[in-house]
Write a sequence for this structure.
């Protein structure tokens, strides 16, 4: 995936025009570059997966698809930009589950369920609880014991206030009975950099961002946050197994459009990304880093799932008494 991230780091993807015209798109769309706005800094999992989907679109359309990084406000800056854009299919949002969190926590000034059209989910993945090797713990149980002995002395990094990582860590604090302080960043990659340098002690990181550092020993992985062990580090236990029963945190990446975007456009995007992410080659590439493509579905099916997950997130936030200040 490190090679994948490097390959996709170029902002503009130009496709092969000869096979593109007349396939997988409504008439007269797109006739100019399409922009996908991402609310984090380059290099994180959301950025990488958005670029991979953008490549699939560009290859099919023979049209440039631009990934525009606009970090800030826990992805609210990017959301605001897209929600105000013309609903013509030329400005889309690449987002993680943080989009729902910004709605549940009332960080957005509008109802995200009606302001955006869920188009397609691309991939889903758990995180790894990573710590700096200088921290004298080698398991989740040891981390909890150490944190309890030094309340408020340890800190974790997240992708920003109200993001998946932030809510996940606050839930970890609640369920484990510890007090680990929050340090927000403008993306996953900057947080990992500060764990590497020892500025903070830990973060939840996807293997796209931290896999190479885990394999080299520059980071120490304590557990996987999913419901089952991962393919990349099969000997690493889940957080639930390792000391916090019932804890689970996963993230998914997808595309959204401003409300009012024509159905023909959202369906075309959904079809191309869904099929492209589920090719055998892409599945193998994603599996090597612990990610899985989401099976193809329609925007209507994604909307049903989005609303169901939104309700579940509301329930979790209320149960854990998580508040955004």
């Amino acid at each position: 995936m490190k090679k994948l991230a490097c390959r996709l780091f170029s902002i503009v993807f130009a496709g092969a025009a000869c096979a593109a015209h007349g396939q997988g798109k409504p008439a007269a769309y797109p006739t100019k570059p399409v922009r996908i706005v991402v609310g984090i800094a380059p290099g994180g999992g959301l950025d990488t997966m958005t670029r991979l989907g953008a490549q699939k679109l560009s290859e099919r359309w023979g049209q440039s698809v631009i990934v525009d990084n606009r970090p800030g406000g826990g992805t609210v800056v990017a959301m605001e930009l897209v929600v105000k854009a013309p609903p013509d299919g030329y400005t889309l949002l690449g987002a993680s589950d943080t989009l729902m969190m910004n709605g549940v926590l009332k960080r957005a000034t509008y109802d995200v369920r009606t302001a955006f059209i869920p188009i397609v989910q691309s991939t889903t993945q758990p995180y790894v609880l990573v710590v700096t090797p200088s921290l004298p713990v080698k398991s989740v149980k040891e981390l909890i014991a150490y944190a309890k002995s030094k309340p408020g002395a340890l800190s974790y990094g997240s992708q920003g206030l109200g993001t998946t990582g932030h809510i996940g860590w606050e839930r970890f604090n609640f369920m484990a009975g510890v007090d680990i302080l929050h340090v927000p960043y403008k993306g996953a990659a900057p947080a990992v950099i500060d764990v590497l340098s020892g500025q903070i002690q830990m973060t939840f990181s996807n293997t796209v961002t931290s896999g190479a550092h885990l394999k080299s020993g520059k980071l120490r992985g304590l557990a996987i946050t999913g419901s089952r062990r991962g393919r990349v580090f099969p000997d690493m236990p889940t957080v639930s197994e390792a000391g916090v029963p019932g804890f689970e945190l996963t993230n998914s990446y997808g595309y959204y459009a401003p409300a009012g975007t024509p159905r023909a456009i959202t369906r075309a995007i959904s079809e191309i990304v869904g099929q492209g992410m589920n090719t055998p080659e892409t599945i193998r590439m994603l599996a090597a880093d612990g990610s899985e493509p989401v099976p193809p579905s329609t925007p209507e099916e994604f909307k049903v799932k989005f609303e169901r997950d939104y309700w579940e997130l509301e329930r979790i936030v209320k149960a854990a008494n998580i508040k955004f200040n």
